[in-house]
């Protein structure tokens, strides 16, 4: 398998790879997304697995299907994904960070300075 992680469901990883391409601008609104068959051939996985990830993106309005033509990136998809990721970032990381900072007695200004220092190092 190409760049897939055994610790996460495959359909979810394929979905996230398509999302990444949209967020980074590799796939733009109106662009044709890779077909299910292309993804099956590339990742060497079951068609149903690929379809599950892709269909979730269709159901959420990130991709849309043109019958007989393929799937395309929907208008507003990038912004919708960025907003979803920001919310997930807050839930998964920021809340814990602020809670730990409070426990350690780190002030808001100190926390902002620490974030700037880390960001200045070029860390992702």
TrEMBL record:
This is GntR family transcriptional regulator. One of its GO terms (molecular function) is DNA-binding transcription factor activity. InterPro entries: Tscrpt_reg_HTH_GntR (IPR000524), WH-like_DNA-bd_sf (IPR036388), WH_DNA-bd_sf (IPR036390). Residues 8-76 form the HTH gntR-type domain. SMART domains: HTH_GNTR (SM00345). It comes from Caldibacillus thermoamylovorans. PROSITE patterns: HTH_GNTR. Keywords: DNA-binding, Transcription, Transcription regulation.
């Amino acid at each position: 398998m190409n760049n897939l992680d055994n610790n996460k469901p495959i359909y979810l990883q394929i979905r996230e790879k398509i999302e990444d391409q949209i967020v980074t601008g590799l796939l733009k609104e109106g662009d044709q997304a890779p077909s299910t068959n292309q993804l099956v051939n590339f990742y060497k996985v079951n068609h149903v697995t690929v379809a599950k990830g892709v269909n979730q993106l269709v159901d959420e309005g990130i991709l849309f299907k043109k019958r007989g033509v393929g799937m395309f990136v929907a208008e507003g998809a990038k912004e919708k994904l960025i907003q979803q990721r920001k919310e997930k970032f807050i839930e998964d990381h920021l809340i814990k960070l602020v809670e730990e900072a409070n426990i350690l007695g780190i002030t808001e200004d100190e926390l902002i300075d620490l974030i700037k220092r880390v960001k200045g190092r070029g860390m992702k």
